[in-house]
Amino acid sequence: MKRVYHPTLNTWQDVPDGDVDSWADAGWRKTAPKHVDTSDLPEVGSHPGYATIPVLEDVSTTTTTSRAGTTTTTSGSTAGTTT
After folding, report:
1. Cβ proximity of 50 and 24 under 8 Å
2. Can you tell me the distance from the alpha carbon of 42 to that of 45, in angstroms, rounded to the nearest whole number?
């Protein structure tokens, strides 16, 4: 197993040795960029990798509109209508 690093996010992934080049071709890095904190990462192969970006607030939106028996709910980019 080898570790590859996302080019812009603080995330990494442990992949089989034979897959490293295909991950690199997709833009992942073979060495840790400066924005990835590697000081407390587990050993290669012991964890699948994850993003460690904190979620500071909920930025999702939901709008509900009712008219004459029809309710339309819009949430983010998803919309649905029920009657």
Report:
1. no
2. 8
